[in-house]
Structure of Isoprenyl transferase:
Amino acid sequence: MSFIINRKKNTAHEMGKKLDMNNIPKHVAIIMDGNGRWAKKRGFIRTLGHRAGMEAVKRVVRASCEIGIKYLTLYAFSTENWKRPAEEVNGLMDLLIEYLGREINELNENDVKLNFIGDLSKIPEKCKIKIKESEEITKNNKGLTLNIALNYGGRNEIVNAVKKIGKSLLDGKIKLNDIDEQIIADNLYTAGQPDPDLIIRPSGELRISNFMLWQSAYSELWFSDILWPDFDKNHLLEAIIDYQKRNRRFGGI
Ligand code: IPE
Ligand code: IPE
Ligand code: MG
C-alpha cells in the first residue's frame, strides 16, 4: 500500500485518509501486545508470534521515519514479563539480538538513534553487548530516536528516580525544596525527551500495564483490537489521524 506525501501542502494521503503533516505527534509510544494470541490463532508456538511482531516493528519504524516522528517508544519487555516461561523470555532476548544484528545498518542509514530504556542490569550479557554496540553506532544520529523499553516498568522507573534524587539530597547537592516535577522528569529513563503525545495499544486490552506512568499524564490514548503482528503503516496512520482530531486541553478550556 503506498502512501503519498505532498510536501507543498504538507499533507499525506493514504487510502483516502488525510494526515496533517503540521501536526505529527512528536512522541508516539506503543505497547506492542498480542503476539501470543496471533500465534495461537494459527496453531504456532508463541515465539513465532514474537517473530512476526518483529516484522511489525520494522514496518512501524520505517513509517515513523517517513512521516517525521521524532521519538518512538516501543514497549518490548516489561518488569513483569519475567513471570513467563524461561524459554519464551530467552526467545525474546534472542530475537532482540537478531533484530539489532539485522537492522542496525538500515536504522543507521535512516538516521535513527537507538536508545534503550529500562533496568538493563538484569538483561543477559550477550544482549547487553549488542545493545551497547547499537547505541554506540547510532549515537550521533539526528532523525528518529527509537526508545526500546526493555525490562521497563513505570513504577521501577519512578523508584529508580527517587533513589537518584535521594542520593543528591544526602550528598547535599540539592535541597528538599528543590525537588519538583522537572527534577523527577530529569531522573527518568526518558530524561530530556518530550512526553508521549500518543500511546497506542493494540490487542484489545484496555490498560496501561505499567507503561510510562509519569510521562503519560496528558497523553492521548488509542486502543485497537488488531494484534501487534498484524499492525502496519495504515494502523499507525489511522491512530495519528484520530489523534489529530482530538482537542488537547491540558486542564485548560
Ligand atoms: C507481546 O505480546 C508482548 C510482549 C510481552 C513481548 P504477548 O506475548 O503479551 O501476546 P499476548 O498478549 O499473549 O497475545
Ligand atoms: C505489556 O504487555 C508489556 C509489553 C508489551 C512489553 P503484557 O502482555 O505483558 O501485558 P498484560 O499482562 O496483558 O497487562
Ligand atoms: Mg500480552
Q: What stands out?
A: Residues 32-37, 50, 77, 81, 92, 203 surround IPE (ligand 1) (CB under 6 Å). The chain is about 40% helix and 20% strand.
